[in-house]
Amino acid sequence: MASQRAAGPPAAQTTIDDLGTPLSEVTFLVVDLETTGASPASAAITEIGAVRVRGGEVLAELSTLVRPPHAVPPAIAVLTGITDAMVASAPEVSAVLPSLLELARGAVVVAHNARFDLSFLRAAATSCGSSWPRGQVLDTLSLARAVLPRPAVANHKLATLAAHLGSSVTPTHRALDDARATVDVLHALLGLIGNQGVTTLEEVLVHSSAVPQAVRAKRTLADGLPRGPGAYLFTGDAGEVLYVGSSADLRTRVRSYFTAAETRSRMAEMVRVASAVDAVPTATVLEARVRELRLIAEHDPRYNRRSRRPERAPWLKLTAEPFPRLSVVRTRRDDAGRPAGDERVAGPAGAVYIGPFARTADAHAAAAAIHQSVPLRRCTPRLPARASPSAAACVLADIGRCSAPCTGGVDVAGYSVTAQRAAASMTGDPGEVVAAATERMSHLAAQERFEEATVVRAALEAFLRGATRAQRVGSLTDVGELVAARRTSSGGWELVCVRRGRLAGTSLAPRGADPRPFVDALTLTAESVPGARPGAPGAATPEESEMVLRWLESDGVRLVSVERPWACALASAAKEGDLAGTLRRSRR
């Protein structure tokens, strides 16, 4: 696997465009609030001032009083000059918020002590049944503390900074005046750090006090990384892989780990111990994401929480033995110890699987859903073809929930009919399981046993998810080779070759070029994949196959060639899952 390592400054000079978003292109929304107190839990907004600015030019302003739900405290009235009489005829915050949200669209929100203002704005949005947008925030208080440490200034209050930096507006504890003063402070601070070579939004965010110095010092690890899609690996002093990720733009993504945009504490810890970044450039974003999955599975990085050990994910298995049963397992193998084959029926010839599941509990819930409809045995010993004369039936046999093969209640041929009903539900039409669960839920609901009905529904949903995953992935892994294409934003073609559900290769055909020679080259150079089922050596993991499926099902994808018909049965777990989801949403 080719990779590129960045552990120091690049040999060639980089351009401003390589480093991030130029400040001249960034739209800022500078906000200031007046409130009746210090906490949104007990206080409310009385005035909003906002200035939208880009490249030093004011684009729009908003200034309005806001009627709070309670009286303005006397101390606040003295401080701000805002009285009950002034806000008596003012609009409520619900009438003002839409205008402010429109101004905030696509902008970096700026405030002096931003945590205070944003806490009130988020609370106001929630009270109006909306939400304050999640976006980048720049706090001029934090920036000033980093750029002008004491004793350069006596303190970092807005009035002190405005006077020190020569603001044309004096803060007055009125929202618009203070917002305008904050604009002047922002521009002055940007000018100061601009003299140090900071010319992009990303570099400004690095100067935030929220970024630990140990993290900030590692930002050179991103120097020299390529632009474009790929996977990246943070590595430690001994070369061990600490974290793996992927991105459509490697350099921009890795740079973000050293800015205030990265808020995860474990990532800050990871960056502190990292000594280098390896890059694996790819032709397409899909290949980058697949590379990420494979690298995580290969290296098991301690800072990755997702997909670290996909081979240990639980499956629900219908065993291959004279009297099959359901079993939750971690490895897809038949009962003879060989990799699972293509058999679709239960019995000695091969086991049947659905999954994998996110949790072992989900696999057990799926088994409960099947047991609700099919009287499979639930005991765990391997039973002989002929029952022992001394064997005794269990309680489930006494109540008709098991055909009691342990006592000779059914022979191998008779039991195989029951086993094949379960196998058919797992690999094809799950209607029998769905019908049994639906009947059980209706019965429990009629008795007002709603909690028990919820458990049954959860078990059915777990079964449908596992069966859907197995059926969808199985339909793709049955196809020896599939080639698909999708238009790129530049007018070319993104080409993908899939073999047995595994991404075998990708390439790009440039705009205006005949894509057919690129398709031919891709199929000749793509990875060879043996005809194996998911979980067996050489095959893709189900997670990779599902990722490929999502791409194949995305808008604009065209099939170029396919070795054999690729389809899912009309009566499938996916269809039943869609119906179950619709029913669940309609009951909310």
Please characterize this protein's 3D structure.
There is one protein chain. With 588 residues, the protein is of the alpha+beta class. The protein has 21 helices and 16 strands. The strands form four sheets. The protein has a five-stranded mixed β-sheet with strand order 4-3-2-5-6, sandwiched between helices. The protein has a four-stranded antiparallel β-sheet with strand order 1-9-7-8. A hairpin with a 5-residue loop joins strand 13 and strand 14 (493-499). Helix 13 (285-299) packs antiparallel against helix 20 and helix 14 packs across helix 18 (450-477). The longest helix has 28 residues, at 450-477. The two termini are 49 Å apart. Residues 7-19, 334-348 and 579-588 have low confidence and may be disordered.
Give the termini distance in whole angstroms: 49 Å
Class by helix and strand content? alpha+beta
Uncertain parts:
7-19, 334-348, 579-588
Question: Number of helical runs?
Answer: 21
Average pLDDT value?
Answer: 85
Strand content: 15-25%
Quaternary status: single chain
Rg computed from alpha carbons, rounded to a whole number of angstroms: 31 Å
Please tally the β strands and state the result: 16
Largest sheet: 5 strands, mixed
- What is the overall shape? globular
Helix content: 25-40%
Order of the strands making up the biggest sheet: 4-3-2-5-6
List the helices and strands and how they pair.
Elements: E1 4-6, H1 16-19, E2 27-35, E3 45-54, E4 57-65, H2 74-80, H3 84-87, H4 93-104, E5 108-111, H5 114-127, E6 137-139, H6 140-147, H7 158-164, H8 175-194, H9 201-206, H10 213-216, E7 230-235, E8 241-247, H11 250-256, H12 265-273, E9 276-281, H13 285-299, E10 315-318, E11 326-329, E12 352-354, H14 360-373, H15 395-398, H16 412-427, H17 431-446, H18 450-477, E13 482-487, E14 493-499, E15 502-509, H19 515-525, H20 542-552, E16 558-562, H21 573-586
Parallel strand pairs: 2-5, 5-6
Antiparallel strand pairs: 1-9, 2-3, 3-4, 7-8, 7-9, 10-11, 10-12, 13-14, 13-16, 14-15
